[in-house]
Amino acid sequence: MEKKKIKQKVWGKKTKIKEFIDNFGLPRLIIAGFLLALFILAPFVGADLPTQITNTINRFSWNAVLVLAMVPMVHSGCGLNFGLPLGIISGLLGATLSIQFGFTGPISFLMAILIATPFALLFGGGYGWLLNKIKGGEMMIATYVGFSSVSFMCMMWLLLPYNSPTMVWGLAGKGLRTTISLEGFYDKALANFLQINIGHFSIPVGSLLFFAVLAFMMWAFLHTKTGTAMTAVGSNPNFARASGINIDKTRMLSVIMSTWLAAVGILVYEQGFGFIQLYMAPFYMALPAVSAILIGGASVNKASITNVIIGTFLFQGIVTMTPTVMNSMIHMDMSEVIRIVVSNGMILYALTRKTEGSK
Fold first, then answer.
1. Exposed, middle or buried: residue 195 (CB in 10 Å: 0-12, 13-18, 19+)?
2. 198-229 confidence digits (pLDDT tens)
3. What's 55-109 look like in SS3?
4. In Å, how far are 24, 71, 289, 295 from 27, measured between CA atoms?
5. Full-model pTM
6. Spacing of C-alpha 113 from chain mean position
């Protein structure tokens, strides 16, 4: 009897482990294990572990809002938002106009959000209208919208009548620079707020709280009547239509929300790194955000706040830790090359997960 009980306990533990692996996903578990191995290996190769943990947490807090922007469109059935650059452009307009109007310090961050909001509502509304006209091919159209909007703004950044000496090219006195420093404006506006420092280890409490508030608001919205209707539209549009839900209106709302979150997300990203990047920079922001939420366990028709948190931490952790550990091991500065290889590899893996989720 005792042997039978022991076998039952062992079998029960194996079953629980199998359930955990099935729920969390074996590939995701491998990625998490690899990231843990990098953290363990870091001190042995000469990398400062507290600093690396701080860098990972920082990058998580600066990128999480951009990943959160994926959630509304996934819930409404519009798929992954490859048109994220449209929202990012709204944020860039808010950022540059805030500086143009003379706002300084942390208040310039709040004003950038306020100024970006009408652009996000306008662009998101037009974007949503277009996606409603072409149901079934949303992600393809979103990709075209994202690419074309970036190309269009490459011309507009040169033509718009900005004249702030902080932003325009010094020789011509017009046209915005490729990179604009945020020193004196909203550089580290969130990152330094309530920051906890313990030796080389620091926690950007302000950035994490800001993301937590937005994530909670998204979670609360998805549990409202409108949020439930949005989920119903994404999971079963025929049932939603029969229930009297206005599908086009609900889808448009999700696109506007996603666009606004992208606008806020790029402002959070900028305050962390301390500069604004224009022209082709928004072109490279969508794929990492899409990849992060897919790595977190989302699919083209299902996403949660947990997927955002897990995916962003894993993606940014791998991208941060791999170059550092590899450089320390081989004693050569190949950080940028390794970062490009790793990030593109993660993106490729995530896009294969997208295909599986869409079947």
1. middle
2. 877 888 898 999 999 999 999 999 999 988 88
3. HHHHHHHHHHHHHHCHHHHHHCCCCCCCCHHHHHHHHHHHHHHHHHCCCCCCHHH
4. 9, 22, 18, 9
5. 0.86
6. 17
